[in-house]
Each structure stands twice: as structure tokens, then as C-alpha cells.
Amino acid sequence: xxKLCGAEIVxxxxxxxxxxxxxAMKEKREKKEENMLSTEQVSYFVDTFxxxxxxxxxxxxxxxxxEVEKNKLPSHFDKISxxxxxxxxxxxxxxxxxxxYDIRKSQEAIQNLQQKLQELDKRLLPKKKFGFKKKSCDTRxxxxxxKIEDTVDSIPVSxxxxxxxxxxxxxxxxxxxxxxxxxSLSDEVICRKDIVLTNLVGCTVKLVGSPSTLHMASLHNxxxxxxxxxRSVFIEDCVDCTFILACQQLRIHNTKHCVMYSHxxxxxxxxxxxQLGFAPYSLxxxxxxxxxxxAGLDININNWNLVDDFNxxxxxxxxxxxxxxxxxxxxxDWV
Length: 335
What we know:
Its main location: cytoplasm. Belongs to the TBCC family. InterPro entries: C-CAP_CF_C-like, CAP/MinC_C, CARP_motif, TBCC, TBCC_N, TBCC_N_sf, Tubulin-bd_cofactor_C_dom. It is a single chain. This protein has helices spanning 2-64, 73-94, 100-124, 131-151, 163-166, 187-190, 288-295, and strands at residues 172-176, 182-185, 194-201, 204-207, 213-220, 223-228, 232-236, 242-247, 249-253, 256-264, 268-271, 274-280, 307-309, 322-324. It is α/β, with parallel strands linked by helices. The chain has two domains: 2-129, Tubulin Binding Cofactor C, N-terminal domain (Methane Monooxygenase Hydroxylase, Chain G, domain 1, Up-down Bundle), CATH 1.20.58.1250; 133-329, 3 Solenoid (Pectate Lyase C-like).
């Protein structure tokens, strides 16, 4: 009987060691695959970025060498400007898996392209003073926001311009054109939806649940509170607002004097923005942890203070366009 028990103990140890060995091999294999995937992603980014950058530089050189007819220069420069914007957004989307060196070099390259475009425009089209781009962008933006107003909460937005660039889909819901209102959407309404908020003044918006994306444009003196967003949050043309939100990536453009209480699992990207304050996410409500799981966000990973400023390339000095709130400035009561 004792011999039998001894044999069972030895067998149990052997089986346990075998399970541990297989588990260790599995972890090692998964780590190797993860590293290979990361390397492949970086390699794809570098190759694609280099190709697109070279194409833009070729177009700039063509204008500089007089290979483009003068009456075609405005449209030529407008296309280059769009290509630079697309390259910039490609870089922003790739930031989660890029090295600091790759991020810095790509940002420097983009800024060089923008500077060269401005220099050529001023020299070759002095009367316009780079005005054609602003006028074109303002016209498209006005049309874009108007169409959002006409479609949010009503009909699909499949005809919206910039759909491919901004990510708007027929899965949208949200609010537009409201003033001094308390607005809210429940989990049943926003779960896995794309939320659009535009042209709000003095409004408080509470989004309790886990939307897919959150797009906000032209908000003034508003407070936006949101549960975890599965993918990206986009903020543009906002002033004097407070945002309390959680997401994978936070992107802010042309926004000033706003405060971000954020939970970001990758990092925040700002551009053409000033006077931005950052603090950790402090919203609390029932079922919030469940919504984090639905969104696929790790509630224990928060890079709220990792901010990349596309308008500030100096690595030895912090950007003057954003700051971390002092402890006595932070809030955690949003009732």
C-alpha cells in the first residue's frame, strides 16, 4: 500500500512538472509571436511612411522646379496638404506600437513637409498667402458640421464628407445644436455605437455605457462625461470644456482652455491646441467595471499623462501647450 502511494506521488510530481514545462513553453511561444508581430507592425509603418513621404516630397519638388503649371498650383498644393494630413493621421493611429525614436522622427518629417509646403505657397502664390487651404477647409467643415446636424439622431450619415478619414458610419447617435441642456444616453442606446456631439454650448452630457468611438466638434463651455470608449476619442474645435472619458487613444485638434480627466491605455495626441490640463479619470458609476470589460480596456493601465504634441518637437523641454493639474485643482465628484 505504501509503495502504491509513493508511486502516485511521484507520478503526480512528474505530471505537474510536465504541465509547468508546457505552460512555460506556451508563454515563451506567445511572447515570441507578440514580439514578431510588433516588429512587423513597426516595419510596415516605416516602409509605408517612407513611401508616402517620398511621394509628397516628389510633389513638392515638382512645384519647386516649375514642373506644375501656375494655374494648377492651388489644386496641386491642396492635394499635398491633404496627403500630409493623411500621413499625420496614419502616424497618430500607429503610435501605440511605435518606439519613441520612430514617433519623433516621423513628427519631424511631417513638420518639414508642412514648412516646405508653406514656403512654396508663399513664394509661388504670394497673393493667396496660403489662403486657398483655409477657405477650402472652412467650407468643407461648415458643410460637414451642417450635415451632422441634419443626420444625428435621425437618418444614416452615409453621405457625410470625410467619412473615410474621420470614421463616421451609419452606426451613429448623439446630440447637436443644443444650448444649456442636461443630456444623457444610456448603455442600451450607446453600446458599440459611434457617438457624435457637435455645436453644443453650455451643456452637460453624460454617456453611461461603452460606445465604440466618440467624436466631438465645436463644443463651448460644456462638460462631457463618458464611460469607457472601445477605440478612439476625437476632440476638435472645443473651448472651455471639461472632458471625463476613458478610451484606447485620445486625439485632440485645434482645442484650447480645456481640461481632460482621462483613462488612456495607449497615449494622447494633441495638435494645434493650447492651455490643456490633464488629470486621471475620476468618473464613477454603477457597472463601470463591466463596461471597461466590454470596451476591452484594462482598468489598471492608465497613461493619462503620456501626451504627444505634434506642434512641439523639442525632446529636452516639455510642451507649453499642456500641463498636469495640481492636486488641489483636480475634481472627483461629477454628480
